[in-house]
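**User:**
Everyone, produce one record:

**Assistant:**
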Amino acid sequence: MPDISQFLQEESALHPKMEVQDAVKFIYQGVFGCGHMVNDISAAVSRLRTEYESVEPSDSLPDFQMLSESWARVNISAVKGRISPETLGRIFVLSAREPKGGADDFEKSLGLLCKYFGKGDIDTYLQKYKKDGYPPVSHTGAYRSAYNPAYRVVSAKFIPLLPVFAAIDSKNPHIVGIDGRCGGGKTTYADLLSLVYPCNVF
């Protein structure tokens, strides 16, 4: 089962107006990631461009928030002006192809809700939610009003490279050099960069 407990605790501290449905959404994304397959990069980038235009850059938000050891939310307001919608769109589409957790993992992780909400609230919500087949859910109006969430869920393997994506997008270089000790992850990072950008690796 994905380790979501620590990250849900952080979410509760960051967003105390979180309701049961918002916590369910957090757990859902921590298990299933993007939650659906996304194959059309141009459509994903087009939607991102529109969303980029609708938010203001923010220095107060972190670039990302971990959902589990496998998934994270990249905050659009935080990376706007540093990471392009084209780059984040490609990362999002690549992440949508990653392996995801299963229904059993999700159902077990829902047990974490009892730490944050009253039993009656949880039971009432989960009875209907289970009957509906555990579908993806949206943020509540209260959460949207308080926090104006704007993010993309991506694979955690891309998170260490966010500063690199920002550097590449800001300078648009023709050549990127990766240096480090033997076994330090140079080949792994080069392979990930080659997935996100149309480039050759030498």
Notes: The longest strand covers residues 71-75. The first helix runs from residue 5 to 14. The mean pLDDT is 90.
